[in-house]
Amino acid sequence: MLLTGYLGGAIASKVRIHAPMFDIGFAIVFAVFVWGGLWLRNPRLRRMLPLQP
């Protein structure tokens, strides 16, 4: 959770200063990997955020 907040701040500051798209995209992809790993490890999170409709 703390890493998500950190990456959110990093993305917001990079968008504000008009950083290259690679810098912004890297932080977004890294955050998706972090949440994906958490989703794979935690069955309660999988029940709360199912991928199937």
Query: What fraction of residues sit in β-strands?
Result: under 5%
Number of strands: 0
**Sheet with the most strands, sense and barrel status:** none
Share of helix among residues? over 70%
Structural class: mainly alpha
What string, H for helix and E for strand, traces the elements in order? HHH
Total domain units: 1
What's the alpha carbon Rg, rounded to whole Å? 13 Å
Low-confidence stretches: none
Mean pLDDT metric: 88
Indicate the multimeric state: single chain
What is the rounded distance between the termini?
Answer: 25 Å
**Dominant shape:** elongated
Count of DSSP H/I helices: 3
Structure description:
The chain is an all-alpha fold and 53 residues long. The protein has one domain (2-47). Helices cover 79% and strands 0% of the residues. The chain has three helices and no strands. Helix 1 (2-16) packs antiparallel against helix 2 (21-41).
